[in-house]
Amino acid sequence: MARLNWALERFPLLKRVRQSASTVWAISSLFLFIDTFIYSLTVANLPDILQSQMHVSQSSNGVITTMFGIGGVIGALASGMPSDRLGFRWPFQLTAAVLYIVAGTVFYFSQHYYQLLLFRLINGMASGVACSMLYTTVGDVYPADLLGFKVAIVYFCNNIAYTIGPICGQRLFELHGVRGTASIVITFGIVEVVLLLTVGEESLTIRRSLSACAKATESPALKSSTINTLSPQSSSADDVSHKGALVPDSATMGFVHGCPSISSGEEDSAVRMPVWRLLTQLPVLVSTLSIFVATCIQCTLEALVPLHLSDYFNRSDSTGITFVIFGLALTIL
Questions:
Q1: What is the number of other CB atoms lying within 10 angstroms of the CB of residue 235?
Q2: What is the CA radius of gyration of the chain?
Q3: What does pTM read for this prediction?
Q4: What is the 8-class DSSP label of residue 51?
Q5: What is the pLDDT of residues 234-276, one digit of tens each?
Q6: Which residue, 60, 285, 289, 306, shows the most beta carbons closer than 10 Å to its own?
Q7: DSSP string, 187-251
Q8: Are 80 and 128 in contact (CB under 8 A)?
Q9: 275-314 exposure pattern, b = at least 16 Cβ within 10 A, e = fewer
């Protein structure tokens, strides 16, 4: 790792890209797209894989989704709070990328039902870690008043992946079977590893540098320098103040001095509270219940729609299109 950092230091442009908050945002958006795309690749193909090839009962389709959920819980619990306690996110992101490769490898060689269960479990663990980290890293490097827009774009990538993932998976399965789909999973895992090793940076390190830069811009000497920069005709800061000129805030000063704007007081004013108390706060409770209900409905549809099309309409080849419609609705909303 030290050699890699030394090599990257030789390229100033790459160094600036690694230390940019926009890079964290772009990586998070891409990684959520990859995570959802990998998840949805096999959704439309489950009846063909389980009933036609592995000859298991239709009730087993729901167990596959359950295994993904169990893996997601394990991954989220193993990465969320530990990343706060340990003070880093990047190693957890790399772990998720490696887990995608492991899951794809298991899927590539799967010939039995229990192997497919193992694939979904590992896939869920990777997703739990990845989703916990990608939203958290965006929150690390952007102030609260920008998070609505930033997270909306990240989630937009999720909806696009859910729109095209099932139909791409269906076509891959028709052309190359399970191994064609598994190869895509492995490839995406490798892409994530490469991106993390080259342009990925620890988000908390970026946050600390932004906070230090913001604090530096609040110094009286730098404020005076900024006022003179913005009002070159004024002889002093006092003259500017008496003439009614606007004294720049930290965001304006950050822009003038090349420092990205982030509130330096957020960390100092943050109040730690137990998790159980946080969950009882009304906004958090409502959001948690809404996500829980929406996910339950989504997972139920994912298990039932392919079976319904196959049993009642004998159209397993149209399953991907139904998820395209569902994904488009999510994207519009």
A1: 9
A2: 24
A3: 0.74
A4: I
A5: 444 444 444 444 444 444 444 434 455 555 444 444 556 676 6
A6: 306
A7: HHHHHHHHHHHHT---HHHHHHHHHHHHHHHTSHHHHHHHHHHH-TT-SSHHHHHHTTPPPP-HH
A8: no
A9: eeeeeeeeeeeeeeeeeeeeeeeebeebbebbbebbeeee
